[in-house]
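The pair is listed for reference:
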Amino acid sequence: MLHSPVEIISAAAIGLVLLVLIRLLQQPAYEPLPQPPQAPSSSLSPSPLLPPTGMPYNEEITVDLITEWYSLLISLAYLYPTQVVYPPHNINERLCKSLGIDDVVISLMKKIPYIDGPYVDVQKREGLDEGDTVYGCHLFPGSMGYSFLRDDDIVESRDPENGGVGGVRLNHLLSHDVALSHCLRDGMILILDTKANTVRILDNNDGFDNPDDFVLEIPSEPDHYRNCHPQDAPSYFRQLIEKVRSLQLIPNGPSRSDKEFYGYDTGFEDRDEAKKILTERYGWPDDFRQEDWARDAEEIWGQIQRDVWDKIQHES
């Protein structure tokens, strides 16, 4: 029997501890709250807009998309049909091979259109004054297309960032990469990777707009073009086509020097006015009166530019 108060208190404490232990043992095991599934890790950091899909390069799809892009530019009277040279082409394959260009790239060069005409003899570029052509105008927003009908363009395209200035680094591009367009001081360079089915868009002013977790392919050369994050090539071309179809971008240019894409980084007021005219007066896109627009486009663009300029002058 317990007689002293100390013994009684000790016994009570021991009983309380035993009771707590029994209650704990009766509780179900702790189960953590379910967590949402995590995406599998990848060694490639994709673009937040157009991540590479992993689909293999398909020349037919690439050619079809580029050709569709040219057709769209013609339909909006940015180019005349006679200013585009269509395949098949007889390019300088010997030169291409001497530069180490892959056969897959050479095949593509022979099958896409070029802004490089009209001529009596395309290869020799005879029969038309060079100043009367639109060679050198913007093929993509802020970017001039190469014409691989020209030996100089084949060579200079292997180092599009230099633009033929200060010597061409002939081995700068990988053999399976091809620069489709270039720029001068401002604009962008478009490089297609036929091995990975991706494109890289190099901005001449802003550097690489890479995702935060992007791992550089060539860390020792931070400015190397391969350190620009790749985007899925077919998706890029389809997005560009859709931007023009929806008139977010509108190609304009009554002359070679004035050709540009309004809505790319400038000309938003011009674009909005042209969009209104194209949809309300010319039935874009479903009932588009293409011949009427081709006839009137130069005059309409001239009036739009004068109106916008007068508005700017009035507001300043």
Notes: The radius of gyration is 31 Å.
